[in-house]
Amino acid sequence: MARAEEMHAWTVKMSTPSVLAVVTVFSMIPGGVLSDTRGAQGLEAQQLAQGSSILHRRLKRGWIWKQLFVPEEDPTPRVIGQVKPHIECAPWTTVAQVTATDADDPMFGNNAKLIYSILQGEPYFSVEPKTGLIVTSWPNMDREAREEYLVVVQVKDMLGLSGGYSSSTTVTVSLTDVNDNGPTFHQHLYNFAISENAVVGTTVGRIKAEDGDTGINARMTYTLEDDLEESATFIIQTDPETQEGVILLAKPLDFESKRRYVVAAEAANDHVDTRFLAPDEFRDRTRLKIVVEDVDEPPVFLRPVYEWKVPENVAVGTAVGGVGARDTDVVNNAIRYSIDKRSDATKAFQIDPNNGTIAVVKALDRETTEWHNVTVEATETSKENFFDSLSTSGSFIPPYKETLSILGV
């Protein structure tokens, strides 16, 4: 009687317990069975995946399967699984097994004699016609070039002769990653800028090396070269989420002392596999150029404390002393000096705006005022809002404050 091929399908998602487990999805397409004058028996399909007790039962021809294992970059053919009759034993231990079962009597002619062929998946995979062994037939398959393959295997009874039944299964083979790529910087030089008044811990910038691998094989650690002033001024940390190197300021900066830093940075894989690359190929280096930006700073007085003692009968116009300040910026602008009028209520003193000399402009009387507290301001001539000040008093004042004592005789 005429026989036809009937197709059924379902999909099973499976876990991948190790780095070599590659099959994540199996699609089962069991062939149909019509009535047979020789008395065909019912067939069933069982899923045996990672010790699961769940059975998927279907009438007609069935399959039994487990996971397949295919590492990338393998130069030689490798057995990745076996499709075999249920009535036979595996000729050797395989990492997975896809089994076709036939309910016909194996002792009756060729009805239960199965033959296997590959419908899709060449030239990367092949199947041994009699045993159903699935092997890789393409050397050095690269996951970075192609990660997934569909392999369709067909089994026929009656040794494939006309009038026999057939069934097929589709296997999705995903190559698992091996560490065959090292980190690579796409830039040989990274440029950053940071203000000289940035506080320690400020983020200077981020760098990133690319790695074609995935998961643990792509993890890397960033470091800066040792024993140099440049690297001691900065530190680098690895962001575990983005796998970027984060450059942080480790010491205070001073534009006037050092304006530029050049630092070498390195990215290295945390895990290496010398089967695929030499140790040096699991790391890459780049340079960081960090420019310190100048901040216009106010002038600074040369001394933290000024103190003078003068007789109360000193003549008007007499100079009692002088103050000095300097511009710490590279431009070194000229300084102008002035007295804060609020600090000199008696208006007994005046200051030369150009050189900071303080002179008496009014008669002094010790019995009336023994101490004079005068605030002196130093201002950059180019930027009037940048100034420093100091005041005079009879007690200690912190730096940039002045003590001016006027004593009688």
UniProtKB/TrEMBL annotation:
InterPro entries: Cadherin (IPR039808), Cadherin-like_dom (IPR002126), Cadherin-like_sf (IPR015919), Cadherin_CS (IPR020894). SMART domains: CA. Gene3D superfamilies: Cadherins (2.60.40.60). CDD domains: Cadherin_repeat. Residues 93-185, 186-301, 302-380 form the Cadherin domain. It is a single-pass type I membrane protein. Pfam families: Cadherin. It is found in: Cell membrane. The keyword Zinc does not apply. Coiled coil: none annotated. It comes from the Eukaryota. GO terms for molecular function: beta-catenin binding; cadherin binding; calcium ion binding. One of its GO terms (cellular component) is catenin complex. SUPFAM superfamilies: Cadherin-like (SSF49313). Keywords: Calcium, Cell adhesion, Cell membrane, Glycoprotein, Membrane, Metal-binding, Repeat, Signal, Transmembrane, Transmembrane helix. GO terms for biological process: adherens junction organization; calcium-dependent cell-cell adhesion via plasma membrane cell adhesion molecules; cell migration; cell morphogenesis; cell-cell adhesion mediated by cadherin; cell-cell junction assembly; homophilic cell adhesion via plasma membrane adhesion molecules. This is (Atlantic silverside) hypothetical protein.
